[in-house]
Amino acid sequence: xxxxxxxxxxxxxxxxxxxxxxxxxxxxxxxxxxxxxxxxxxxxxxxxxxxxxxxxxxxxxxxxxxxxxxxxxxxxxxxxxxxxxxxxxxxxxxxxxxxxxxxxxxxxxxxxxxxxxxxxxxxxxxxxxxxxxxxxxxxxxxxxxxxxxxxxxxxxxxxxxxxxxxxxxxxxxxxxxxxxxxxxxxxxxxxxxxxxxxxxxxxxxxxxxxxxxxxxxxxxxxxxxxxxxxxxxxxxxxxxxxxxxxxxxxxxxxxxxxxxxxxxxxxxxxxxxxxxxxxxxxxxxxxxxxxxxxxxxxxxxxxxxxxxxxxxxxxxxxxxxxxxxxxxxxxxxxxxxxxxxxxxxxxxxxxxxxxxxxxxxxxxxxxxxxxxxxxxxxxxxxxxxxxxxxxxxxxxxxxxxxxxxxxxxxxxxxxxxxxxxxxxxxxxxxxxxxxxxxxxxxxxxxxxxxxxxxxxxxxxxxxxxxxxxxxxxxxxxxxxxxxxxxxxxxxxxxxxxxxxxxxxxxxxxxxxxxxxxxxxxxxxxxxxxxxxxxxxxxxxxxxxxxxxxxxxxxxxxxxxxxxxxxxxxxxxxxx
Length: 575
Known about the structure:
Blueprint: H1 4-16, H2 20-24, E1 27-36, E2 43-47, H3 48-63, E3 66-70, E4 78-84, E5 88-97, E6 100-111, H4 135-145, E7 154-157, H5 161-172, E8 177-180, H6 188-191, H7 203-206, H8 223-236, E9 241-242, E10 245-253, E11 258-265, E12 268-272, E13 276-279, E14 301-304, E15 318-322, H9 326-337, E16 341-346, E17 351-354, H10 355-362, H11 369-373, H12 378-386, H13 390-407, H14 409-417, H15 430-438, E18 442-445, H16 448-453, E19 458-461, E20 465-468, E21 472-475, E22 480-482, E23 485-488, H17 496-502, H18 505-511, E24 544-546, H19 551-569
Parallel strand pairs: 1-6, 7-8, 7-13, 8-9, 13-24, 14-23, 15-16, 15-23, 16-19, 17-18
Antiparallel strand pairs: 1-2, 3-4, 4-5, 5-6, 10-11, 11-12, 20-21, 21-22
């Protein structure tokens, strides 16, 4: 069993005997089994042989896994796998060290009898309607009925990329859905952001599910172009969306197993009764603006970065930007390019990763044109990425960032000489650690770092803000910076804030924190969970789900959340 095929044969024998201990014996003592819906209806990583034995012992008889196949070459120590269970067809990836599993990833791909209607299973497009209606008539009728005379099974709050992705999955799987969004048009979430914004990740990483960007799409997408694409996507995927609609409140009726969700549309309150409620409002809560003594005295403008219109019209103005992460850097660079005098106030250290490093080092092996030409499709790249459990990710990224810090030392030295405080996450895990733990504390450099290093963006770091004056900002070291405008690029709260406001403090307390995995590092207290808290999986509140993350996460996890909702819609899963 020294190769993938041999290991799978041994696994099949152990599963056939329903012997959890024998299954665990196929793993290293510190081995990891990451399972996404294939063996259990949740997303979880089981670490160490004791946990793996217990998991296998509980789930083997229920799962009935069989027909194990691998595309790995004979003698290979890692490779893609496929198999079947009682629920459907599955995929995965196996990594071996000395014949034992270092990591084993298993994921449900399709529900038996409810497969995704794609490729060879696509619909014919022929419409046979007793009333003589064509496709356009049926779409018009569905949109008119959903939420009015027909209740959605799933109500999705938010129609940004997260909401649209889960909506598209539900539409393909035939689950009645309704998306609501406060903006006038789909895509306005992006159009309304500061003028200079362009996606920091490359196109190969940012495809939406089921409908990738065309081959001529730019490497980095401008915000308004992204907004227009999302509007097109909603129409192409035939989603049911109510714009200019907000969730006012929601209450779960445990006896009925439904939600009473009050939404405000065109000034009218409407009560919807979905069975499932998906919060797709991004991976953050409300704008976080610090309270500073003297804010009522300052005679200029001050506002949160989420309200920043862009640098146009600010030529000659003195602008303080409080913060040193993504938004702060982008806003400062935009201000300078429009002739303003920008000062960045750094309150704590920041992790910096150059965009070229993201594209050409970290993402290139699986998300790049070279990877595509080597046969690594987006689906395969997503599977490879997900196949690495978070515990293993930490180790891999610590090693990668140790090498990057050495290779790019001159770049980082210039920033530090300018007074900029750097970090690479507390344990050296870099941007992956920062993002998965707290989704903050980093900047993907698209040019602003050079402005900081050469002084075009003034920097104030190493001294606390004490108060505002009529004309500016004072610091603990006795210095004072004059300003006409203060922008607070100070981030956002956590997702559970939306639950507290719209559903109730009691439900927010019941589900606990969203995001992070219990690493014990800054912003991510323990205990260790091994997967992101409450994301894309059942929560402690029946019928409440969270959909969020970056575009790559949205693309991959929308399918998993959709499969869970479909399984409940069809009665395959009762809980």
